[in-house]
Amino acid sequence: MPPRKLSTPRNRPAGRPSGKSGKSGKSSTETIVKRITAALIEHRLPPGAKLGEVALGEIFGVSRTTIRQALNRLAQDKLITLMPARGAFVTTPEPREARELFDARRVIERVVIERFTASATRAQLAELRDHLVQERAAIAAGDAAVRNRLLGEFHVLIAEMAGNAVIAELLRELVQRSTLVTLLYQSTRAASCSSDEHDALLDAVRRRDAIAAVRLMEQHLTHVERDLALPGDKSPALDLRAALTLARV
Ligand SMILES: [Zn+2]
């Protein structure tokens, strides 16, 4: 018998189905969440697609209870929407909502960056530089979920550092809503450009050049918005099994 680590269940590879009832539930839920998230990010599951419990149960070979747990987790992150009596659907941010979100962000963030350029300390700039290193690492690793979160957090961090808690709170909500849009519609190339623009923005702050910082922030938000591959009016028919089978974990 080959040596096996039995001491802790955390050693069990996440993607391997145990084939037994009982303790496999948690691991299966995580695997399903990862597979569906990957399919969303890689645009194999389009916004509005229905995620039927029975179909998913067959695809993953697990019970509907496990599927429901996975769907609830995805719904908490707003990646899918659970509709009473209708089931689970991939969340569809409306193009109009996306435009309004970025418009609101431009209004708020030009004030934020102007104030931050006046007040930024060395320690704050160093923290933001470290944040940029993490962004780059996530982009290089091809980790779309992490890079997306970090790209959004950069803006929230600046708002918190700029010192107005009410504005920071407002922006946190706007960023949270727009990161859902970017998660679904932003390409790796656009994410990479986005991080380069963060770098240029920090340079302007470092030089205490408020005019340049405001201009770069406005341009940056406009670029992020413009580069989104927002959905057209008609989606092609979806093969749920193919979309999920191809998903990398
Ligand atoms: Zn950004």
Verbal overview:
The chain is 66% helix and 4% strand. It is mostly helical. The chain has a three-stranded antiparallel sheet with strand order 1-3-2. The chain is elongated. The protein binds zinc ion. Residues 151, 154-155, 194, 198, 220 line the site of zinc ion.
Task: Outline the fold blueprint.
Blueprint: H1 24-41, E1 50-51, H2 53-60, H3 64-76, E2 80-83, E3 87-90, H4 95-119, H5 122-140, H6 144-162, H7 165-185, H8 188-206, H9 210-226, H10 240-245
The structure holds zinc ion.
Residues 151, 154-155, 194, 198, 220 line the site of zinc ion.
Task: Put the structure in a nutshell.
This protein is mainly alpha-helical.
- Count of runs of 4 or more consecutive helical residues: 10
Count of domain modules: 2
Average pLDDT over all residues: 83
- Spatial ordering of strands, largest sheet: 1-3-2
Computed structural class: mainly alpha
- Per DSSP E runs of 2 or more residues, the count of β-strands stands at 3
- The CATH architecture of the largest domain comes to Up-down Bundle
The CATH topology of the largest domain comes to: Four Helix Bundle (Hemerythrin (Met), subunit A)
List keywords for this structure.
3-stranded antiparallel beta sheet; 249 residues; binds zinc ion; 10 helices; Four Helix Bundle (Hemerythrin (Met), subunit A); Arc Repressor Mutant, subunit A; single chain; mainly alpha
